[in-house]
Amino acid sequence: MKKSGTKTKGTKELALSDAIKDLEGELKTLAKEKSSLSQELGNASSSLNTDVEKEKELQQKIAALVEKEAKLNQKKKVLQEKIDRVSDKINKISKIKSEMKDI
């Protein structure tokens, strides 16, 4: 009877040994997956930081362009006022010429 008990004990040990090997294999697989995911996360973080920096740069460029646009609009307004004054003067001169012809 002891022999059958020994066989049972050996079978249990073998089963436990196989289970441990399976678990070790799964742990290695999980470690590889973890490493891969960590690398992906690092790449994504780096990419995100790059994108954030690019966004800041583009926002600064937009702000500079908006400022330039405002200056150009102001110059346009000043030039339009000058054009209007010159136009008024031309109209006055034309009116005076017309009146002088009538005389």
Plain-language structure description:
The protein is mainly alpha-helical. Helix content is 98%, strand content 0%. The protein has one helix and no strands. Mean pLDDT is 91; it is low at 1-5.
Determine the oligomeric state from the structure: single chain
Runs with pLDDT <50, length 5+?
1-5
Largest sheet: none
Q: Structural class, judged by helices and strands?
A: mainly alpha
Task: Give the termini separation.
Answer: 148 Å
Mean pLDDT reading: 91
Shape: rod-shaped
What fraction, in percent, of the residue positions are helical? Answer: over 70%
Radius of gyration: 44 Å
Number of strands: 0
Measured by DSSP, the beta-strand proportion falls in under 5%
Please count the helical segments.
Answer: 1
What are the secondary-structure elements, in order, as H or E?
H
Top keywords for this entry?
single chain; 103 residues; mainly alpha; 0% strand; rod-shaped; disordered N terminus
Can you describe this structure in just a few lines?
The chain is mainly α and 103 residues long.
SSE diagram, text form:
Blueprint: H1 2-102
